[in-house]
Amino acid sequence: MKRLRNCLNTEDFRLAAGRRLPSPLYHYIEGGSDDEVTSGQNTSAYEKYKFIPRQANGVESISLKSKVLGMDLDWPLILSPTGMSKLFHPDGEIGVAIAAKKSGIAYSLSTMATTSIESIAAAISGPKVFQLYLFKDDELNFEILDRCKAAGFDAVCLTVDTAIAGNRERDVRTGLTIPPKLSLRSFLEFAFKPQWCLNYLRGGKFSLPNISQDKTGDLSVLANYFAENMESQITWSKVDRIATYWGGPFAVKGLQSIEDVKASKASGASAVIISNHGGRQLDSVPSSFELIADIADATGDTIEIIQDGGIRRGSHIVKSFAMGAKACMTGRPYLYALSAFGGDGVESILESLRMETEKVVGLLGCSNINEVNREHLRYANKLPYYLSEASPAPLNTKIRRT
């Protein structure tokens, strides 16, 4: 079994998580919707572009500092909001938040977290964002926002792409329930992971303290709660109402079209999070990375762009930055690390990603990540000049060697 010191990158942590988690929980992290095309392409899309480094630039020191949503970050990463983190390890959301603080980046707490707004605020003083699912009851929405204000959260992001649940067939096949419960079908899956079972039993009662009622049972119970209480008729006027009530840095999460980005700005957003929910909602949509350039060109500097989805290497962060993102978000990598090694694992994977990011920036010939731009990228399938229509030379021209 892999030890923490032997995990050097996201793939190592993914394999370690697979060895430690019961199969239903591991596949809950891994899974996407339908044929899982988009969830895979979120990462593979980065390989459509290759780096073009510049040399002899006298790089002496490298700065990765960035500012987004009013938060000063040591490097441009925000940990995505992922629900129910204590299901994967008892360190849960607090372990992740502390690791983010140590790394100098921001942590996002989900509405569906197993740790309260107030507990996160007590645990860290670093940059923190609250992710809000919109409820039908505005009093509940405003109550949550009031709690965030009192707890000193820096920003809020409103998720708008989950009005209908994605078709996540893996969860059905693996018999996932939230919280986990034993059945004839699942007994062996959990029995072969005794350490996880022991940790889970020590963790106390499953709860979701950021919503008005604790929900237990299987996914259908949780789904029924969403169907009964979550707002399915999200409109830009409702987004505007939330942004106005919050009154601080505000992002809309789950956007993929230029028109929606512009509508977000008109509704009071200071940032947008380009995201397809990790490929877990509508399948067969573009990777979020592929959308950055067009959105950045259409909006200029009028709104901050945060890219969410598919980040597995520091090179992915740098490519997103080159396309026009101000920061990136990632979820699955830190869940792998949390599942395998708790908060220590999250610290380790963040250090790996930060180191990779710094090395890529330096190897590109830049001393500051803000110097990275599209001139440092080349489309992988682009024809070489001599084969392009622009080339005046015939294709059979021989190279003269002296």
Q: Any idea what the shape is?
A: globular
Kindly identify the CATH topology: TIM Barrel
Helix content: 40-55%
Low-confidence stretches: 214-219
The residue-averaged pLDDT reads 90
- Tell me the number of strands: 12
- How many domains in all? 1
| Tally of individual helices | 15
Note the run of SSEs as H and E: HHHEEEEHEHEHEHHHHHEHEHEHEHE
Distance between the termini: 57 Å
Radius of gyration: 22 Å
Summarize, please:
The chain contains 15 helices and twelve strands. It is of the alpha/beta class and 402 residues long.
Detailed description of the structure:
The protein has 402 residues and is an alpha/beta fold. It has a single domain, classed as TIM Barrel (Alpha-Beta Barrel), CATH 3.20.20.70. The protein contains 15 helices and twelve strands. It has helices spanning 10-20, 23-30, 37-44, 92-103, 117-123, 138-151, 169-174, 187-191, 194-202, 219-229, 236-246, 258-266, 288-299, 314-323, 332-363, and strands at 49-51, 66-68, 71-73, 77-79, 106-110, 128-133, 155-159, 250-255, 271-274, 304-308, 327-330, 377-379. It has an eight-stranded parallel beta barrel with strand order 4-5-6-7-8-9-10-11, surrounded by eight helices. Residues 214-219 have low confidence and may be disordered.
